[in-house]
Design brief:
The complex is a heterodimer of chains A (189) and B (403).
Chain A lengths: L4 H4 L2 H14 L23 E3 L15 H5 L5 E7 L6 E9 L8 H5 L5 E3 L14 E2 L1 H14 L4 E2 L2 H4 L18 E2 L8
Antiparallel strand pairs in A: 1-4, 2-3, 3-5, 6-7
Chain B lengths: L1 H5 L10 E5 L11 E7 L2 E8 L7 H5 L4 H9 L6 H16 L5 H30 L2 H22 L8 E2 L2 E2 L5 H25 L3 H7 L7 H7 L4 H4 L7 H4 L20 H25 L28 H9 L8 E9 L4 E9 L4 E7 L1 H6 L2 H5 L4 H11 L3 H5 L1
Antiparallel strand pairs in B: 1-2, 2-3, 4-5, 6-7, 7-8
Helix pairs in contact in B: 3-4, 4-5, 5-6, 5-12, 5-16, 6-7, 7-12
The chains are: A alpha+beta (189), B alpha+beta (403).
Bound molecules: iron/sulfur cluster (2 copies).
């Protein structure tokens, strides 16, 4: 090896240096994060939010408890009450511990009405534990913040549509696809 | 004692020095601790100590339903999560007798190979950095970033993807994304040429890798090495070829093997494997059949056999308890083992089912754990600086070893 022409003529080192030299003239790929921001792709699994019905202004959740059962880290707690006359369930409180969440997206995938959703909001933090334990109020607030930044007329999540999945596996109300109209929602929070 | 203090200090070159390397050492790739016995700088003995990242994953799986275990497997080898997910999905599919539709199979193969490239890139980056080649580190992360972006576009997460699902994948991939992946492949090939240009002939790289950490084919088999660490010694064993799963029987690829079983051969093997992965991804995208991506027989994510018996005021403890009390016998009983070729080696899942909706026992055959047991053999009579190269060349990840 020591007597090969590659070794004696420093061909190996020159090849390497030429490669690094070529990179020197390329555009850098670094993103200067706090000043420049990467646009995450649609349906990124970020901060949770509770979708609000644009017409009534109420959370869309129907308290079916599917999300709470499916969650692998068991971080969703739901309180609801049943209407005596109609038998309808009414949501009283929805607590989601974002600190325990593993961002698997199961909750938004099983939700039959598209109520809980993981938004494309990826930078958030809290000063204490309580800040990251979302209750219903905070989840709705999250949705309003998300909507305020969303510049399209509709919001659609890939986990609501589930392209390519047989109809049988989708929850019934979502089989035709589910789109949330955003225009007309009051976002003053 | 006063007498001892007066006596001459021992000559460090003659006596055996004990040294604890890790678990916070940057080049032990995570929280691996090595108890070294040194003579000067030569390693006489070395004992790996594992378990610092133990999260009780196998036990945890016993309390979860089959779909719920899937996000746990992301946390095994977090560098190539797609392979772990696929491995777990395969074993449950075999238990339930589900066959994914062709499109699901091809998509799974494609993402697995992307994950393999990402994992090998991270390996090359850190391995080269440990040995002293800083540039390669930065270049590899540049390409890995692109692959992670594809994952983000496909399923919305970068590392803990949970994209495969029992019976297929969770959703279809957009045409535009497939096109992007396809256009990335030639670029990736050029990049691999660049890495080879930087390293393969470089005199420092050769000095540090040729003849370091040699293991013969017989010994490698005896230690249970798999994956590129075994193929570097010349044994062409690959789960993708020998026990094919998903779309692997339908695509063409070769299994690169080394000759000498040293660090350099394993390096060569992995680089060749990246090229083969590119070949597989290209074929997958070209041949991708139309149709659905999940089998109709797949159990729902919220597997709830029977009716729901939830009370008002239900907090999810109540929901959970009512689920556990449901009748058993909803799934076939039995034990089975199934393996995939993970990026590190043969990743096996051994599943015991008692017929309920949860695994009775899930054992994971983690290649990293077995590879760590070979470190004492490989490191014997080498210098400490070479130990770093040896840990790198086995490509261990502690999330998988300690589970
Ligand atoms: S993303 Fe997963 S872990 Fe997080 S709340 Fe939803 S189901 Fe639970
Ligand atoms: S699955 Fe949807 S509708 Fe059902 S409880 Fe959860 S958020 Fe509400």
């Amino acid at each position: 090896m020591r007597l090969s022409p590659t070794y004696l003529l420093f061909k190996d080192l020159v090849t390497g240096l030429l490669i690094t030299l070529r990179t020197f003239f390329r555009k850098p790929v670094t993103v200067r994060y706090p000043h420049e921001k990467v646009q995450v792709f649609p349906s990124f699994r970020g901060r949770h939010a509770m979708v609000v019905d644009p017409e009534t202004g109420k959370p869309r959740c129907v308290a079916c408890l599917k999300c709470s059962v499916v969650c692998p880290s068991r971080c969703i707690k739901i309180e609801y009450e049943v209407d005596e006359k109609t038998g309808e369930r009414r949501l009283r409180e929805y607590i989601l511990e974002a600190l325990r969440c593993v961002y698997c997206g199961y909750c938004e995938e099983v939700c039959p009405v598209g109520a809980i959703v993981l938004t494309e909001w990826f930078e958030y933090s809290g000063r204490c534990r309580e800040d990251l334990i979302f209750n219903l109020e905070k989840l709705v607030q999250n949705w309003k913040e998300h909507v305020a930044k969303w510049d399209k007329e509709f919001y659609e999540n890939k986990y609501w549509v589930l392209k390519g999945v047989p109809l049988k596996l989708k929850p019934a109300p979502r089989r035709m696809g589910l789109v949330v109209k955003i225009k007309g929602v009051k976002v003053d929070g | 004692m006063p007498e001892n203090r007066l006596s001459e200090p021992e000559d460090p070159f003659l006596s055996v020095l004990e040294l604890q390397m890790g678990p916070q050492h940057p080049s032990t790739h995570g929280v691996l601790k090595l108890h070294l016995k040194l003579e000067g700088e030569r390693i006489v003995d070395c004992e790996p100590i594992v378990g610092f990242l133990h999260r009780g994953l196998e036990k945890l799986a016993e309390n979860f339903t089959y779909p719920q275990v899937l996000p746990l497997t992301d946390r095994l080898d977090y560098i190539s999560a797609m392979n772990n997910n696929t491995g777990y999905c395969l074993v449950v599919e075999r238990l339930l007798g589900i066959e994914p539709p062709p499109r699901g199979k091809y998509l799974r193969t494609m993402v697995c190979e992307l994950a393999r490239i990402a994992s090998h890139l991270l390996w090359l980056a850190t391995h080269a950095l440990d040995i002293g080649a800083m540039t390669v580190f930065l270049y590899c992360f540049r390409e890995r970033e692109q692959i992670l972006n594809f994952f983000e576009e496909i399923c919305g997460a970068r590392l803990t993807v949970s994209y495969p699902r029992i019976g297929g994948v969770r959703m279809d991939v957009e045409e535009a994304t497939l096109e992007k992946v396809y256009n990335f492949l030639p670029e990736m090939e050029r990049r691999i040429d660049e890495y080879e240009g930087l390293l393969s002939e470089n005199r420092i790289w050769l000095e540090r890798t040729v003849g370091v950490g040699v293991i013969t084919a017989e010994e490698a088999i005896a230690y249970g090495l798999t994956g590129p660490s075994l193929r570097g010694s010349g044994v062409p064993y690959d789960v993708r070829k020998h026990f094919p799963y998903d779309a692997y029987p339908e695509v063409e690829f070769e299994v690169p093997v080394g000759k000498n079983g040293d660090t350099y051969d394993r390096y060569k093997c992995r680089l060749q494997e990246m090229r083969q992965s590119i070949r597989i991804i290209r074929q997958c995208i070209e041949k991708l059949p139309e149709g659905e991506v999940v089998s109709e027989l797949t159990p729902d994510l919220d597997m709830m056999p029977g009716g729901r018996m939830l009370k008002a005021e239900a907090f999810n403890e109540v929901a959970f308890i009512s689920f556990l009390q449901e009748a058993k016998e909803i799934f076939p009983k039995g034990e089975l083992y199934s393996a995939v070729e993970g990026a590190k080696g043969e990743l096996g899942f051994y599943l015991v089912s008692d017929g309920s909706g949860r695994p009775y026992r899930l054992h994971i055959r983690a290649p990293s754990f077995i590879h760590i047991s070979a470190i004492p053999k490989l490191a014997k009579d080498h210098l400490i600086a070479d130990l770093v190269a040896i840990i790198g060349t086995l490509d261990i990840v502690m999330g998988e070893c300690d589970r």
